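Hi there, hope your week has been kind to you so far. Do you reckon you could talk me through the fold, stretch by stretch? Thanks so much in advance, here it is.
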Amino acid sequence: MILITGGAGYIGSHVNKQLHKEGYDTLVLDNLSNGYEDAVKWGEFINCDLSNYKELDSIFKRFDIDGVMHFAGFISVGESVEFPAKYYKNNYKNTLGLLKAMKENHVNKFIFSSTAAVYGNPKNIPITEEHPLNPINPYGKSKLMVELALERASKVESYDFNYSALRYFNASGADIDGEIGERHNPETHLIPLVLEVANGKRDSISIFGDDYDTPDGTCIRDYIHVTDLAKAHIKAYEYLDFSEKDSRANVFNLGNGNGFSVKEVIDVCENVTGIEINKKILNRRDGDPAILIADSSKARNVLNWKPVFSDLEKIVKTAWNWYKK
C-alpha cells in the first residue's frame, strides 16, 4: 500500500487515480485545508493533519504501508512571502515529522513533490538538475530545505532510506476522463484563471508585464499535464526498487521542455473555448523571470518517462472539459 499525503488535492488526486489504474492500493491522508474529499475516488481516505504526530504514527502502525508519496505542501509563492512561518511549519517541519514516523515504522521509500522554485532566477535555459539552487521566496526555500533533509536521511547507514524529489514546472490540465481536475481557492494558476474568465466567473485575466525579452513580451513557462506528472511519480517510485543505492536518492525535473508565453496560453484558451478573453496589462511582478523551461532529459533517460500531453491545446482541452462540469 502507498500512503499519499495531500491526496485530496490537485496533483495528489491525479496520482491516486493513476496508481489505482496501475494496480496499486492507496491510503490518502489530507486535512482538506486545500483539498476536497470528493476528489478521493480511489483507495481509503483519512482526515489527518501531519502536525498530529501521534495520529500519524498510529496510521503507520495500523496499515501495511510500503512507501509514501508526499503532496501535503502549501504552494502559493505570494502567500509564502506574506506568511513565511506558515510555509516553513507545514512544508518543512511537518515533513520532518512524517519522515520520523516512516523511520520509526521501517518504511523507507519516499517520493517528494518538489518544485522548480528551488532554482530561483535561472542562469541558463533550459534548466537542468545541476543548475544552482537559489530559491528567492519562502515557498521555494521550504521545498529546498526538505530536499536537503531527504539527502541527509539517505546517508544514514542504519536506515536504508530511498527517495526521489520531483521538481515540477507548471502543472496543468485535468484528468482526461473528467472525473477530477484543478481546484484551488484562491486560484493562482494561469490556465484555470483564463478559463474562469471564459465561463463567466472572472471579468478579465491580468497579464503582469508585456515588455519582457521574449517574442511577444510576456513571460514564457513550461506547462506539464497533471496526468504526465502522475505517471512520472509511479516510474520514480518503481525506480527505487530496481536501482543501486547510490543512484536511488535522486532529483528529476518534470516539464515538457517547451515554453509557451502568457499570450500564447490565452490565445489557445480562446481557440478551445470559442470565447474572447478580456485582458488587462499590468506592471511586472517582482521575481518573475522572463523564461522558465525544464530540461527533463534525465527523467526521460533514467525513468523512461515521456510526456504524452505535450501539445498545449490538448492540455487546455482537458482543463476546459473539467471546468464546464
User: Anything to note?
Assistant: The first strand starts at residue 2 and ends at 5. The chain has a mean pLDDT of 93.
